[in-house]
Model the fold of this input.
Amino acid sequence: MAGFREYKIGSKLFGIALGGSMTITLFFPSINIASVSSSEIALTKQLAIGHETGFNLDDPLLLGKNKPIGVALKADPKSGQPLEGGMMVYVYQPGTSFPAGILHTRILGAGVEELSVQQGHVTDARKDSGAVFTVNKGTYEGKQYSYIENLTATKGWTPADVIRVAKDEDLSNAGKGKTMFVREGCWWCHTLLPEETQDWQVFGAPPMLGDFNGESPTAFGSDRKAPDLLHVGSRNSSREWMMMHFFNPRLVQPHSIMPRFDYLWGEKDAAGQKIDYAKWRAEYDEYREGKRVSPPDVPSYASDSEIRGLIDFMLSLK
Ligand code: HEC
Done:
C-alpha cells in the first residue's frame, strides 16, 4: 500500500514538473525573442533567405522555389549613376513570399521595427507586385539600429528594374541554397553554430541572440561530425574549390567522408550539354587506379542549377 501512495505523489509531481518545464520552454522564449532587436546579421539573413526554408506549402518538395534573389548592385537602376562602393539589394519577384519580419514587423524587435516601418516603409510592400529591399542604418530614440528599407517604396526601384541591370555574376541564390542545405541534410554532419569554446579559434565567433529574428528553420545542427559552417565563406571563398568539393569531396580531401552531391548539377551543364555522369565516374576510377594523371574536369553548372544556389549560400556565410 505504501508503494501505491508514493506513486500518487510521484504522478502529481511529475505533472507539475512537466507542465512547468513546458511552460518555460514554449512560452517564455516567445515573450523574450520578440523583445530582442534584430542585429544587422538577422536582417541580412532574412532578406537573403526569404520566408521559410523548411517544409511549407509554397515549396512542398523543397525545390528552392519562392525565394528572393540577392543582387550586388553597382549602379542606380533608374538613373544609371554608379553607386559608390556598390549596394546589396534583395529582389522579391511578384508572388514571392516576404520574410517573417516583414509580414509581422513585431519580430524585428524594438527600434528596428519602428525604423523599418516609418523610414523603410516595409508595410507598404505588396507580394503581388514584388519589392526590392536593402539593409540601412538609422537612429531611433538616440540609439543606432540597422533596419529594412523597401526600395520600391522609397526609391521606386521595381524588381524588374533591378534584374534588368544586373549581370548573372552579380546575382546570389543563397535563399534557394538554404533550402538545399535543409533538404540534403547537411545538418546531419555540419553545424551552423560555433560554440563558446575553442571553436572561436577555428570556426569564428558564436552568433548572438539577435542574429536569429525571423529565421526559420535555424538549422543549428546538433551532433557535429564535420566543420562548423557559420563562417565558412570567410575562410574559403573559392567557387572553384566548392565546385570540386561538392562534385566529389575526394577530389580535394582524399579521405573525406562527406557524400558527393554531383546530382545537384542536374541534367545539363552551363553550356546546355547533357552531363555524362557515367563517363565522368569511369574516368575518375581510371585516375584512382593510376591510369590517368589527373581526374576528369568537374562540369560547370547551369546558372539555374541547385548547386549554384548551394554554393551561393556557402559563400554568403561570412
Ligand atoms: C556524412 C557527413 C557529411 C554530410 C552529410 C555533409 N558533409 Fe560537408 N563535410 C563533411 C566532412 C567530414 C568535412 C571535412 C572534410 C572535407 O572537407 O571533405 C566536410 C567539409 C565540408 C565543407 C568544407 C568546410 C571547411 O571548413 O572548409 C563544406 C563547405 C561542406 N562540407 C558543405 C557541406 C554541405 C553544404 C552539405 C550538404 C549538401 C554537406 N557538407 C554534407 C561531412 C559531411
User: Anything to note?
Assistant: DSSP finds twelve helices and five strands in the chain. The chain has a mean pLDDT of 94.
